Amino acid sequence: MSGFTKTLSALMLSSASLVALHPAVAGEVNIYSYRQPELIQPLLDAFTKETGIDTNVLFLDKGLVERMQAEGVNSPADVIMTVDIGRLVEAKDGGVTQPLDDAVVNKDIPAQYRDPEGGWFGLTTRGRVVYASKDRVSDTAITYEELADPKWKGKICIRDGQHSYNIGLFASMIAHHGADYTETWLRGLKENLARKPDGNDRSQAKSIMAGECDIALGNTYYVGLMLTNDKEPQEKEWAAAIKILFPNTADRGTHVNISGMALAKNAPNKDNALKLMEYLSSGEAQQIYAEQVFEYPVMPGAEPSEIVKSFGPIKPDTLSFAEIAANRKKASELVDKVGFNDGPSM
Ligand SMILES: [Fe+2]
Are 58 and 64 in contact (CB under 8 A)? Predict the structure, then answer.
C-alpha cells in the first residue's frame, strides 16, 4: 500500500469514527487530543458526572492542526488537548484556535502558564531533569550550564536534539543567556555525549543502567511511568538505576514544559467547551489530571502524586511559556548549525 493510500484510509477511518461526534448537539463536547484517551478519560468521566455533558474524544498522534485546517468551518472540534508548548503554539499559529478570555480560567491558571492572547492554556507541567546513575554519580546538584563542562566528557546520553522536549529546553537557554552563549553551550554538550542522540527519554535511563552513560536528560513523568509499569516490568529496573537531579535549583529553577488546552476556532458546542475548560482549570481537576500522568498541576498549592513527590521538590523556572515559544525556531536552527545529532566529534 502506498504511503498516500495508507494516509487516506487512516483519514477515512477517523472520519467514520467521527460520525459519533455529532456537531452542535446539545449536551456534548468534542475533544481533539494528542493525549492518549486513557490518560484523560477519568477526568472527562468526572466532568460528565458533574455537568451531564457527554464528551467525545478523537485521538490523533499527528496532523491535528492540518486536519482541523482541512475541516475548516465544518470542524466538529470544540477543545484541543495536547502536550508541549510547541504543539499549543502550532495550533494557535495554524489558525485553528480562538482566543478565550474567561474569568474562571484566568483565575485558576497563573499568567505565566497561558498565552497572553488567550490562544492556549497550560494545565500541568513536567520538568526536564537530569537522570543520574545511582551507582556512578555522587553529585547532588547540577545546572544545565554544567552539562557542557568537560568533566562530563563521554558521559551524557540524550534523545534527538530536534525533539520538542529538547527544543523547549534549548529555547529557554536562549531566553536566559542569548543565542551566542547557547550555541557554544550546545557545542560543549554535544562533545560530552557518549553517543549520537538516539531513543526516547525512557531509553536514556536504560542506557544509564547498561553503563553506556552516567547522566541523561529526561522528563519527570517518565520516571513515574517506568516505576509503575507492570506491563513492561524491565522499565522498573531502568528507573531503579537512576536518581533525579533537578537542575538549577539554586538559581532560576528547572526548565518545565506544559500540557494544555485550547478553544477550537469553530467550536460548534462553544458553551459546553467553556464549561469543560473551566472544569479542567479547577484546582481539583488539575490535581486529578496531574496524578494520572505523573505531572505537576499549574495551580500553586495543588499537589502532584505521591510518586512524583518522592522525586523531591521541584523549583520551576518562571520564564513565561510565550517567551520559550518565541525562541523555539532559533533553538532548532542552532541544533542543526552545531551538528548536534551527529554526536561528539571524537
Ligand atoms: Fe512524553
Answer: no
